[in-house]
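Bumping with the actual sequence this time:
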Amino acid sequence: MFPCIGESQTFRAGARHVSREDPKIRVLVKKHGLIKFEVDRDPFESLVGSILSQQLNGAVAKSIFEKLKAISSDPISAESLKGISTSKLRQIGVSPQKISYLKDLSARVLSGQLDLDDLKDRSDAEIIRILDEVKGIGPWTAHMFLLFTLGRTDVLPVGDLGIQMSIRKLYSLRKDPDAEKIKKIARNWHPYCSIASLYLWREKD
């Protein structure tokens, strides 16, 4: 059983830890207070949302996601997604590339090749490895799944543009930090990198 930041006790412990270990993050915690965080309840729909969000403005991605829900099921399922034609997906704004990603995800779930319910009992590293086999799912999407669907405590999305921009501003850097620079800054955040990440996103927004 892994701790989940969707539980208030775990979130509070994480917020105390990152505040104690990093004065810069402490400023954000004091400014924004305790963030109300709830995990996404449906793993398949969560992955669909993450795939749609890749390299898109948040508002645009949300609009496409809502249109997909309107022509699919609530929550979106592998079965319902499989039944939607490519032309319909194109009509609501899904790119051909992402359609191929969604179809691959659906096929793997329906065939039993990918058991999303099984992932909750696996380590972060195992989950990243398993999801990496799905077409179009890389480290960023896997990190979003770990953080927002499973509520894992120690996720550090080094490839996220919002995280990079927020760190650049907060730590007065001359340019957006690369992965190694972010890991160095975050060395004292462990085992609650997820909490620090949420505050960095909140500050950016």
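The tokens above came from a reply further down the thread. The radius of gyration is 18 Å.
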